[in-house]
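Figure 2 data, in text form.
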Amino acid sequence: AEADPLLRQYEGSARGRGLPSAGWRICLAHRFEEPRQPYGAVDVPLRDVLRHIGLVLRYFRWWYKKTRIEKKPAFIDLLCAVPLQQIYGCPLGGIGGGTITRGWQGEFCRWQLNPGIYHYKTVIANQFTVCLRCKGQTVYQQVLSVERPSTLQGWNWGYCGHYAFYHALYPRAWMVYELPGQNVVLTCRQVSPVLPHDYKDSSLPVGVFIWEVENGKDEEVEVSIMFSLQNGTGTKEDRSGGHWNEPFAFEKDGERVAGVLLHHCTHVNPFTFAISAREKAGTAVTHLTAFNPMGLGREVWQDLLQDGWLDSHSGKSSPTAKGEVTAAAVCASCRVPAREHRTLELALAWDMPRIHFGSKEKLHLRRYTRFFGSEGDAAPVLSHHALTHYKEWEKKIEAWQKPILENNQLPSWYKSALFNELYFMTDGGTIWVELPPDCCAEDLQGPAGAGLSHLLPVLREYGRFAYLEGQEYRMYNTYDVHFYASFALVMLWPKLQISLQYDIAVTVVNEDIQPRQYLMGGQTAQVKLKNVVPHDIGDPGDEPWQRVNAYLMHDTADWKDLNLKFVLQVYRDYYLTHDNLYLRDMWPVCQAVMESELKFDTDNDGLIENGGFADQTYDAWVVNGPSAYCGGLWLAAVCMMCKMAEVLRDFETQQKYMDILKKGKEAFEKMLWNGKYYNYDSSGSTTSNSIMSDQCAGQWFLGACDLDQGEYEV
C-alpha cells in the first residue's frame, strides 16, 4: 500500500542529489525498455525506471486482488503464464459452440467449452483403439496412441510413432496408421463444419471422424474402431459427482446413429457429450455405457478383445459419487474383403446450449440453439446431423480451398498459413449467441443509438459474435487488432463482421461513466467516452457487451488508432458487401468518431499528433508528434470519409475532408519522409528514424478497397 508514496520519495531524493538529466547508467535496462545500443550499458532516465517499477507494483496489487481475493482470472496474467507446448493440432467444432483441440499425436489436449476459458489437459481415456480379427480370432488390438500412461494399464499402449503420420489443412486433419506387421492401413479424416458463408452448420459443436480401412491382406479381416471418452474435460469438476451416462439411438429419414450420451451435470454451464457411430449395411455399432477411466481398464479391453464388439448393456449408469470419474465407449465394426477398403464413421458432439459468463448475470443461448433447441437434449440429433451431412461439408470445403491450393503463384507456406491460421475463428474463445427473444431495439441501442435503424434486424438474424485477442489476452473483440484479422471474417462470414460492427457502433454512440484506475500511470478515467471506439467489448470472466473495455493498461480514449480503424473497416465492409443500409447506418457514427479524432490535430495542419506515450495498438512503444503509423491511418480514414460522402451524396462533408486530406498529405510528406521511408515519428529522438514495418497499414487498407491510386491516393 505504501509503494507509490515510497517511489515518489525516492524520485524526489534522486533529483535532490543532482543526478545528471540523462539519468542513471544501468546494465539491466532491457528489463524496462529496448536497448538503444547492441551491447553494453544504456542510458535510461530515472523517471522511466520509476515509472516501470510503479506499473509493476500497481499490476501486482491489482493481480492479487483479482485472483486471490475476488477469485477471478486476470484478463492478462503475467504472473501465471501458460507454458508453451508444441503439441497442438487441428481443433474440433464449428464457430461459437466451444472447441476441443486434438494434438498432432491424436490426443485430446485442449478444451474451450466454457466461453473464453481454456483447460490445457490431455485426457488419457479419450482414445481410438483398433481391433483386427481374422477367421474368428483377434490377431491385433492396439490403442492408437504413443502414450504409456499410469492409468488404464490393462490396455495395450505405446503405438510406435514411426508408423503414423499427421497432416492438417483446417478445418480438416488426417492421421494415417500403418499397422505394423498387419498389412492394414487406417486413415482417420477429421472434419469440422467450418463453412464460408454458412450461418447454420458452421455454428455446430461437432466433429466427425471418418476411418478409411485398407486391407492389403489376401484374406478378409474384421476391423473394429473403439472410441472412448471421459465424462468431463480433465478438471476437478470431473470428480464433483452427479455425472452419468446413457446409451442412445436416433433414426431419421432412414439413417440411424447410435452411441452413448455423457451428461456432465455442473451447476454452471452443464453439458452433454455424445460419442456415436453411423449404422449402415455391413457396419455394426456397439457400446459400453460406463467404465472407470482411473482404473486398469481390463474389463473394457477384454470385452473388445473377445469378439471385436462391446457388450451394449441397456439402461443408464448410476450418477457418480463425489471423487469418482466415469467414461464410456462406442465401437463401429465391419468386414473388409481381401485387397479392398471400407469406411467407418464416428462422431463427437457436445451440447452446452445455455451459457453464463464469469459474472453469471445473464443467460445466453448459443447460435446453434436456433436450429437444434436449447433444452440440453440436442446431442443425439447433432450427432445424426453431423454423420449424415459431413460429405456435403467436405464438398463445400474443397470448393472453397481448391482454387487457392491449385494456384501455382502462391507459395506452399502461404497456402498452409492462410487456412491453418483460421483455427482461431473457432478456437479463439469464440462465442456466437442469439439475441433474447424479448429483446427490443431500445435495449440494444441505449439512450443514443436510435440512428442505428438496422441494428436489431441484423443482430436478430445473425446473432452476436466475439472472439478473444488471444488465449492469454482474454478480451473479446479487441478492436485495434481485429482491424487486421477482420479480413478473414468479412471475406468468409461477412454477416458476422457486420454484426460485430453494429455492436461496436452502439457502444461508440453511448458512454460508460464508471470510473476506473488504469495501471499504466495510475490515472483514473471513465471506462469509455461517447464517440470513442472501445478497445474491446469485455472480459469473459465478467459480462461482455454489458461492460466493455476490460483492458486497463492505458486509458484507450486517448489512443489515436481505434477511431480510425472503425472508419476504415466500415468502408472496406461496404466495398466487399455492397450493403447500402449498413453504410447509411454507420455514416453518422463515422462522422462522430472523426470529429472526436480531430482534436488530436492540435496545429490544424490536417495531420493528427501522437501524445508522447504509447497511445496506439503498439502499447509499449512511445510515440511523439506526427507518426508514420497513426498518421498513415488518419490519412487513409480521411480518404475513406471522402469516398463514403461521395457514395452518400453528402457533398459538404466530402469537401470538408478533401480539404483536410490535401493539407494532411503535405504535412505527412514534409514531417516524416526522409528520402527513403517514413520515419517512425517526428520527435527527433534516437528512435525517431526507425523503420516501422507497419508504417503503410493505412495504405494497405486503401489498396484492399481500390483507393490507392488517382484522386484518393494517400
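Caption note: The chain has a mean pLDDT of 91.
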